[in-house]
Structure prediction request, 190 residues.
Amino acid sequence: MKTIALAAAMALSTTAAFADAEKYTLDSSHSQVVFTYNHLGFSTTYGMFSGFAGDIMFDKDAPEASSVTVSIPVKSMFTGWEAREGHFFSPDFLNAADGDMVTFTSTAIEVTGDDTANITGDLTIQGTTKPVVLAAKLNQAGDNPLAGKPWLGFDATTSVLRSDFGLGAFAPAVSDEVKIMISIEAQKAE
Prediction:
């Protein structure tokens, strides 16, 4: 189990992939990014991105040679209140246009346990790129009983400062820190 867990956790590193790496594509229907922030000290507000795409090049024999890339449409954000989404897409925050993407590309990994790792990567939001570290956990690696092919599942957490990406409007009343929770599934590519 330790070897499988370690190998799957290392699927998120970004060193050059060896010829034995296998491509996995994110299952957009079972992958989400949830974010939270403090609003004026009164509440924790939630939002979500979904419907994104990405690939994991997974080398089970040399997991340090694996990598991950993800692209998330900015306008896939859902907060549960249309006016809030409109404000987030305005020049006060994202100044978002159709086709704008948030991207993540892994750059390094530090294995921290049998099924956990710290994944470092470049997060780009509206033209600004900053390094972030994801605390990742392998949920499962194996055959998906419904799809009948190999599948990977991970959860990860991190936090970022909005101001690092030029999105610090109304801070600190509206918290600069945004906590991020990620859950993804990836299927072996055809």
